[in-house]
Amino acid sequence: MKEILLMALILSAQFAFGQDEDGPCGDGSHGRQHSNGGGFVADSATVSPSAIVYPRASVCGRAKVLDYALIGGLASVMGDAVIYDKAMILGSVAIMGHARVGGRAIINENAIIYDHAKVDDHARVFGNASVSGNATITGQTVISGNAKIYENARVSDDADVYGNAQVFGNAVIFGNADIAGDIKVSGEGRICASYTGTWITTDMCN
To answer: Cα 62 vs. chain centroid, distance in angstroms?
Structure first.
């Protein structure tokens, strides 16, 4: 339900772009077109001259887009989120809260990154996947489908998490792990290779 409300907020903001007095951020924020790409940047937000914000994208709230980061498509970056290095935010993605996305990470399609989540290195998050809480996604990880990574979970290395998989608690997914279907990994669960099951709460790597 929380994610549905978040996406409703983003969609309403996107619909407002150039058509409604509430503006692209949906809250009446004053702003400007970014000199590198032409997208909307609220006066309260910070975007480096070297960063790109394309015409239909928006940077709202106190969000920061730094370095050579790129915001494209209908993507929205808001709240206190920070996008840095050469990260790319595309599609209809929403980045909010205190989320951080850096390195050469790519967030695309309808993915949502929020709370204090961090995505870095060459990680990719797309589809309808979400990363929230204090979750950390690094390495060359791919998170896709309807996967949910939240609480204090960590996913790294070359791991793939997709389907309806959920990784939460203090779970750690790493190595060449392949997590799919309706599997849940929580508690102190650790997976480092392809695994099938329903609910994992223990270390499967020893």
So the answer is: 17
